[in-house]
């Protein structure tokens, strides 16, 4: 019986296939509207088109259809992918043509509509032998494909046609191959000069540089304006120096232990493997300069992924708005690139969360290109212990992304893999994965001894040629370069690096200037906490009315008309009783009129967790969505993007941080469904939001709205864990000598009135710099009658107050006890004081600390000085003693008191959980807090 041989095919292809550009699928793009912005993004194609004759031909040759389908679906199991040959290529029974009754090598088939190969004579007829050889060369060589899992038939057909019709094309031309050769020599110099430095080099996976260079060239040819890269530490220095024009002398300066910033810069800097760069690249025949930005990353590996997508999405919006081509669609002007390690790709949950955003409205980047630098090991963990899937890339199938596996020993095939990935992304605007299978020449870092745990693998690695040497040998054999030229190229690059190394001793890092869209911003030296953020009352009434206005025929839910729209209009007319949601809408609307954009993102933010906001209205008959504040009010009005996100915190918060560092003219807000939902995004908070400016001089105006407050609902969803944010703040404890200046890394506020949140949000954009803002927001006081504001509290000349004085302390001289409080507990204390007799009540002042960081030393000292007869200060909180603000405020309040009087704590005792889950105990504890606050009065 005749069988197909599964020998490794020659790298050059079978010779039976040729380019068939005219036959490639050219699907007509259709578009849908992005809900908030109206930016066009390509729709998925709904079906694959076969002509009636092709369909009949497929029926006639059903056996061949089955064989071709087997190669397309499982041909990857018979490929030559492993450079180390640790994973041997298998014989796959499903690829045996006899299995389908094809036993005669000379049997002819009409392949029209079945297989996209071009025959020698240009007809659509080929023999079984020719077909099987072509299938083997296409699907079982150094490239392998997985795309049959994709549900959209048009995407599967396009991939099959493109892969098959280009399989026999010539590889990169001689100029490109010489370019690849020149890119593969950096690590040899680094190992020689800096062998004792942990640099996480790319040795063994050098073809990743070829992958990126080919991708950049494709972007340039296609007229893409920008590319944004997120990647972990391995290979970062290679890519920065080899491709992104990062000055080697700057790298060597950093390697010598110096800062990447000029002396005197208020920045802590970061380790070598986290540095970033922005470069402008030019390619021969390209459509212009390609701006490539590599974002900084933390050591939490894949945490950069959502940041890249958020940054890229925001940049896409800007490029789209400023593009003059009416046919431009979202994704045309920018390409997002995510580079992963193999163990991290399948092991880190943020990868799955970020993939989950890829096809969602308000998050889509028009498709990201993922490159897995697959070293076949994770630190010391073998791949058999690192994942439960067959391939590390299998996690990408959750979004039906096609996967291209490629053997990293063959840079020319790597370049082809990138071309296929780029063209798929260009056509369908979906994520695509390139699994670049390589090895790691050294240990996890250059100082590790990997053979302690992987002796077999490293015996093979040490005995084999390097990827650059293998490629050089092939280039010499093919006449791409000569021995003399190769030697000269190595010598020239080596001398260049030697010269740069010599120059690093006198290197002075350039200053970092805010540029581009950030040119109007400043680098703060002291926090601005109070500034006039008021707005004319007539304008506020107009904005308030606009926030609930809908077109005729738009049917609003009857409950909303009665309980939301009518009360809001009444509040505005009377100028009092302004509730929280109305004040927030006034802040949004007034900022939009001033030209700022706002992105409000989180789970259920359109309606609001507590059904309080309703920034997005839904027609009860058509289910059409209306964002009333986006109704036109002049050409300079900004846009409000209301984003009901998926059930993710880590990736979504990272995405919003990415948005925030892209433009100072957008107010990005992430609202947690409940305050403690940020828990699963702690990595983003620690490594980006809290420290991004300190490490990398990146300003961020991100706002985190975290509903906070104990209301008897149990341990979870009560506390926003403000103690964690305060612990991350870098503000001084003592300002008594006047020498300390507060310029904290972020602000933490606990506003208790609608006017305060109005001013906080406006201050966030009106200041000449950007800082993250954490707001412990309200829950039960959202509709509390006592927690309302007058319209005049938001009028001209008004501002946010870091400390709210006790307006009810009519006789300050009678006050003996000052209660300091942050948050909703104020209203419980105020109600309890009102129930005291007049003489006792007059002896108690209740002062609200509305901003905890920067701590309002001067404002609080000024307010407490109003009560010269006070003998005691009490910090009151409903949180436990080991939580809440007490540990943060205690030394700062004591620095104000300077021993003049004691500071007493009133609140819950220490507890591992935020609060009890037993309602009777909760009520007793709450009552005791109030009782202790007023005992002795």
TrEMBL record:
Residues 578-784 form the Transketolase-like pyrimidine-binding domain. Signal peptide: none annotated. Keywords: Oxidoreductase, Thiamine pyrophosphate. Gene3D superfamilies: 3.40.50.12470, 3.40.50.970, Multifunctional 2-oxoglutarate metabolism enzyme, C-terminal domain, TPP helical domain. One of its GO terms (biological process) is generation of precursor metabolites and energy. One of its GO terms (molecular function) is oxidoreductase activity, acting on the aldehyde or oxo group of donors, disulfide as acceptor. InterPro entries: 2oxoglutarate_DH_E1, DH_E1, KGD_C_sf, ODO-1/KGD_C, THDP-binding, Transketolase-like_Pyr-bd. Transmembrane segments: none annotated. Its cofactor is thiamine diphosphate. The keyword Oxidoreductase applies. Pfam families: E1_dh, OxoGdeHyase_C, Transket_pyr. It comes from the Eukaryota. Belongs to the alpha-ketoglutarate dehydrogenase family. This is Transketolase-like pyrimidine-binding domain-containing protein.
């Amino acid at each position: 019986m005749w069988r197909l041989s599964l020998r490794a095919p020659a790298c050059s292809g079978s010779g039976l296939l040729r380019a068939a550009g005219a036959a490639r699928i050219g699907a007509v793009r259709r578009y849908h509207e992005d809900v908030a912005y109206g930016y066009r993004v390509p729709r998925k194609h709904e079906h694959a088109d076969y002509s009636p004759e092709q369909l009949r031909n497929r029926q006639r040759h059903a056996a061949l259809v089955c064989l071709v389908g087997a190669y397309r679906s499982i041909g990857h199991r018979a490929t030559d992918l492993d450079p180390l040959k640790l994973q041997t290529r298998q014989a796959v029974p499903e690829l045996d043509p006899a299995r389908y009754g094809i036993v005669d090598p000379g049997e002819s088939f009409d392949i029209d509509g079945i297989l996209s190969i071009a025959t020698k004579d240009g007809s659509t007829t080929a023999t079984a032998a020719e077909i099987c050889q072509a299938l083997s060369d296409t699907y079982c060589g150094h490239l392998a494909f997985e795309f049959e899992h994709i549900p959209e038939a048009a995407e599967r057909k396009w991939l099959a046609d493109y892969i098959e019709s280009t399989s026999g094309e010539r590889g990169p031309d001689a100029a490109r191959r010489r370019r690849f050769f020149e890119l593969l020599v950096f690590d040899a110099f680094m190992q020689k000069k800096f062998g004792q430095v942990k640099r996480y080099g790319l040795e063994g996976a050098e073809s990743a540089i070829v992958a990126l260079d080919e991708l950049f060239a494709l972007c340039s040819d296609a007229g893409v304006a920008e590319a944004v890269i997120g990647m972990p530490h391995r290979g970062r220095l290679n890519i920065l120096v080899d491709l992104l024009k990062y000055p080697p002398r700057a790298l060597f300066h950093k390697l010598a232990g110096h800062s990447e910033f000029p002396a005197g810069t208020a920045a802590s800097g970061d380790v070598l493997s986290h540095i970033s760069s922005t470069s402008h690249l030019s390619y021969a025949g390209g459509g212009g300069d390609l701006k490539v930005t590599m974002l900084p990353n933390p050591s939490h590996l894949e945490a950069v992924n959502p940041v890249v997508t958020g940054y890229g999405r925001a940049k896409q919006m800007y490029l789209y708005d400023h593009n003059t081509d009416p046919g431009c669609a979202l994704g045309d002007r920018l390409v997002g690139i995510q580079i992963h390690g193999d163990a991290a790709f399948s092991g880190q949950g943020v990868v799955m969360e970020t993939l989950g955003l890829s096809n969602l409205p308000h998050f889509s980047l028009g498709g990201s290109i993922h490159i897995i630098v697959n070293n076949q090991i994770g630190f010391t963990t073998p791949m058999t212990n690192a994942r439960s899937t067959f391939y590390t890339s299998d996690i990408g199938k959750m979004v039906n992304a096609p996967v291209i596996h490629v053997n990293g020993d063959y840079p020319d095939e790597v370049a082809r893999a990138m071309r296929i990935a780029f063209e798929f992304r260009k056509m369908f605007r979906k994520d695509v994965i390139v699994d670049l299978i390589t090895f790691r020449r050294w240990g996890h870092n250059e100082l590790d001894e990997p053979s302690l745990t992987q002796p077999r693998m490293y015996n093979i690695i040490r005995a084999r040629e390097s990827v650059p040497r293998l490629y050089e040998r092939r280039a010499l054999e093919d006449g791409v370069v000569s021995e003399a030229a190769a030697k000269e190229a190595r010598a020239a690059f080596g001398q260049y690096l030697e010269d740069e190394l010599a120059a690093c001793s006198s290197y002075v890092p350039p200053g970092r200037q805010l540029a581009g869209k950030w040119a109007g911003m400043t680098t703060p030296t002291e926090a601005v906490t109070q500034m006039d953020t008021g707005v004319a009352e007539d304008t506020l009434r107009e904005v308030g009315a606009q926030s609930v206005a809908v077109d005729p025929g738009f049917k609003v839910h009857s409950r909303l008309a009665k309980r939301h729209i009518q009360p809001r209009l009444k509040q505005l007319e009377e100028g009092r009783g302004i509730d929280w949601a109305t004040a927030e809408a006034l802040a949004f609307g007034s900022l939009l009129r001033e030209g700022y954009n706002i992105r409000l993102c989180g789970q259920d933010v359109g309606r609001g967790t507590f059904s309080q906001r309703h920034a997005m209205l839904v027609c009860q008959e058509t289910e059409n969505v209306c964002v009333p504040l986006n109704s036109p009010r002049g050409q300079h009005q900004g846009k409000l993007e209301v984003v009901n996100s998926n059930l993710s915190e880590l990736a979504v918060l990272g995405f919003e941080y990415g948005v925030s560092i892209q433009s100072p003219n957008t107010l990005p807000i992430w609202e947690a469904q409940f305050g403690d939902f940020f828990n699963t995004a702690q990595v983003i908070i620690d490594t980006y939001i809290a420290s991004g400016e300190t490490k990398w001089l990146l300003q961020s105006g991100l706002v985190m709205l975290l509903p906070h407050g104990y209301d008897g609902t149990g341990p979870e969803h009560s506390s926003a864990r403000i103690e964690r944010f305060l612990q991350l703040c870098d503000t001084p404890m003592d300002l008594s000598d006047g020498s300390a200046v507060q310029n904290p890394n972020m602000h933490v506020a606990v506003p208790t009135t609608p006017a305060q949140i109005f001013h906080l949000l406006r201050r966030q954009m009106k200041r000449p710099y950007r800082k993250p803002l954490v707001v412990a927001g309200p829950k039960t006081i959202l509709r509390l009658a006592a927690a309302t504001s007058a319209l005049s509290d938001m009028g001209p000349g008004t501002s946010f107050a870091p400390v709210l004085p006790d307006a009810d302390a009519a006789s300050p001289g009678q006050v003996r006890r000052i209660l300091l409080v942050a948050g909703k507990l104020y209203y419980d204390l105020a109600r309890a004081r009102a129930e005291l007799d007049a003489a006792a009540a007059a002896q108690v002042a209740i002062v609200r600390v509305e901003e905890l960081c920067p701590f309002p030393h001067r404002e609080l000292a000024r307010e407490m000085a109003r009560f010269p007869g006070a003998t005691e200060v009490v910090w009151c909180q409903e949180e436990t003693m080991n939580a809440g603000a007490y540990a943060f405020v205690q030394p700062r309040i004591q620095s104000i008191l300077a021993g003049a009087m004691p500071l007493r704590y009133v609140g819950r005792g220490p507890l591992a959980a935020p609060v009890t889950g037993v309602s009777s105990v909760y009520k007793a504890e709450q009552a005791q807090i109030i009782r202790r606050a007023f005992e002795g009065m």
